[in-house]
């Protein structure tokens, strides 16, 4: 009779371990997918920031090149306005909506 009780307990322990292993693997897979999505979002964000930095860094050079020529300055102003609109759109598109704290 003791062997049966011990065997039943061992079977219960094995079943619980199997359950925990399956649950852990599912959580690991979910975390992997979420991590991949986060990695992609960070890369996209990095590319947007780099583009903005290139734009901003070039403004001084473009102003120096335009000098005091009103036509060149007007063209530069129009170019900058267009770039501002693109940058603003990119920031809005890449800014996630504010949400509550992440669920565990």
Overview in brief:
This protein has 104 residues and is an all-alpha fold. Helix content is 86%, strand content 0%.
Strand runs, count: 0
Quaternary form: single chain
Annotation field: number of helices = 2
Taken in chain order, the helices and strands follow as HH
What fraction of residues sit in β-strands? Answer: under 5%
- Contiguous low-pLDDT stretches (5 residues minimum) are none
Overall radius of gyration: 29 Å
Shape: rod-shaped
Report helical residue fraction: over 70%
Overall mean pLDDT stands at 83
Major sheet: size, sense and barrel closure? none
Count of structural domains: 1
What distance separates the N and C termini? 44 Å
Class from secondary-structure proportions: mainly alpha
Could you characterize the architecture of this molecule?
The protein is an all-alpha fold and 104 residues long. It has one domain. 86% of the residues lie in helices and 0% in strands. The chain contains two helices and no strands. The chain has helices at residues 2-66, 70-93. Helix 1 (2-66) runs antiparallel to helix 2 (70-93). It is rod-shaped, with a radius of gyration of 29 Å. The mean pLDDT is 83.
What characteristics describe this protein?
rod-shaped, 104 residues, mainly alpha
Protein topology:
Elements: H1 2-66, H2 70-93
